[in-house]
Amino acid sequence: MDFNFTPEQEKFRQEVREFLDREVTEELVQEAEKGTLIGSGPAIKAFNKKLGEKKWFCPVLPKEYGGMGASHVENLILTDELLYYRALPLMNVASQCVAPSLMMYGSEELKQEFIPRIARGEIEFALGYTEPDAGSDLANLSIKAEEKDDYFVINGGKLFNTNCHYADYHWLGARTDFNVPKHKGISLFIVDMKAPGISLSPLYTMDYERTNEVFYDEVKVPKKYLVGEKNKGFYYIVTALAFERNFPIGMMRRDFEDLVDYVKETGKGKDPLVRQKLAQLKIELEIAWIHTYRVALMAEQRKVPEWEAPMVKMFATEFMWHMGRAGLEILGLYGQLVRGSKWALLNGEFEFLYKHGRRRMITAGSNEICRNTIALRGLNLPRG
Amino acid sequence: MDLSLSEEQEMLRDIARDFLRRECTKDMVREMEEDEIGYSSDLWKKMADLGWMGLAIPQEYGGMESSFLDLAVLLEEFGRALVPGPFIPTVVYCAVPIVKRGTKEQRETYLPRIAAGELVMTLALTESSATFEPWGVNVKAVSDGEDYVINGVKLFVPDAHVADLMICVARTQEDSKDEKEGITLFLVSGKAPGISYTPLKTIASDRQFEVVFENVRVPKSNILGEVDKGWPIIEELMQYAAVAQCALMLGGARAVLEMTVDYAKERVQFGRLIGSYQAIQHKCANMLTDLEGIRFATNMAAWKLSEGLPAKMEISMAKAWCNEAYQRVCTEGHQVHGGVGLISIHDMQLYFRRAKAAELAMGDADFHREKVAQELGL
Prior knowledge:
heterodimer, A: alpha+beta, Butyryl-CoA Dehydrogenase, subunit A, domain 2, 3 domains, 4-stranded antiparallel sheet, 12 helices, globular, B: Butyryl-CoA Dehydrogenase, subunit A, domain 2, 4-stranded mixed sheet, 11 helices, 10 strands, 16% strand
């Protein structure tokens, strides 16, 4: 047992911090704050390129594909620091989902076309899973991909596909077979977002994010952009989800420290209730931190964190919610003020966390689904 | 980063689990709840033969000089098996400070006997003030020639009735500005004239006592540490003691989860296994999540103590978390078991009741959260 990092890992962390001290500007942080409202603005694009130059945009990729062959622990160290510096919007689809899946299931041709550009931080992806009738029940998706000679024609709609308005590509799950059990008839495609026939309608969330309805009207996708085998898409999606889902808490650590500083500065630290609340948050923070490393260590040992990944997602998002709530309790009336309002405290971060925590307990695998998975896969409880 | 136990630790765990499954059955646990002594001297001797009392005692005193983390692994199995008796008071509350702060003579006199299972000890710390803070210590010790004379009442003293020797925490100086100063630790014979015991009846059915000191004489050579400077020793031993309780809670929580999942996979109602209902599945998922938190927090604290690293924050985080998480695990365990879990011949209620003792020993959640707040600099 060892809760320390190796000297090499500490050296890496130091290198990352020095880079971030230099490269993270106020402009970058403000763009990142806007999250999906504007997507990647110029500062984020430039920063992603710089990360790409250091091989840090998707560090776990092998060196020959533009990564640094980083271990999952190193990847987590880097991500935690990026989040701590507020330089990273919370989810990076290209490096977290697409690149690892392509490495596992994509043809060499596809890998060569996309991986180096992902590694250099040049392209962005949007996940294309959810539909009006396919939320938690992902296998229920029904957007249709019909096979023609050397292309597929796709018709149908997606809902809550975030990032589509600025992503270069759609990582699309579509149905290629309607005559088999639902999960056996899904295929994965890479679709150019500029392809004729794709249109978007924005949806704005209560936590200042933008997501989209996406409409596919006779969209042609060349066959080479089928990822892996036809009708195996659901299996790829689920395995990738288990493997790549982690929930680094670097930004929440930063938020917690800011809250502690605020409490110290204002003398609220003398209030026993405030002390108790902050202590409880600290405990949950450190336990969440260990959870994230547990999942990273499993990934390093090529063990699939079937229930461990849902557990970290669940725990970390509920911690986020607790911190948002506690922060607002401590801020009192000020807690209701939105970022940018006169008199708003701590840059409105806790008003944001309160709403964002609410959202994160639902999206990317609701916490109820997480609990189902933990029960079924972690405890072998029987299906209903 | 490595969150796993070593091979040796896994072996220790497996051997301990196996031994305790055979030698410390739930029947014995129930019997001991009613028994006046409260533990089996036969089991005690067997554990001594396995070297468990001396597990973390230095080799020169007859111990195995294993790490505190190794001891925590063993204590996890104690928590699972609900081992009754004065093991933790002897081995953790008292042996730890004697190893770290005893004079050469004290170490040579007491440690080999503890390691051999021949000396039972306990700690008389808390009083009617019911706090683990230094201002709660009001039992007085007054200097008189070669001795000190102790007067006062200690409460919640574990296994006092079988202790050959006690560490009694007393106030030797009234007028210090800081309540932490002026406290002295005395090694007092359990049979010293002037000591009397009254058993307390507890929810856990463990053996806790009111101990009255009436003009009890203790030779000055029996002071552990220095006069008036005893509180830092208590703070230090409380660190180990709190983590020991966390280890017990870890083992207990794991046993409760296993028992609960097993039950959910057998019990049929409305034509289905109750484990197939989502409400039950979610309770079990919450229990596993709490258990993993108990495991991470306990291991982090035990590891840091083992490595000699500063650990005040981690220890209080662990104790605060475990206190509440183990309670939640028992609550959900009870809900899943329904009526049967309430019956005394069922094991669920054994763990539920025992959980309260572990929670309160060495600081409840509020107490430890306050320590975390202090460590945060608030």
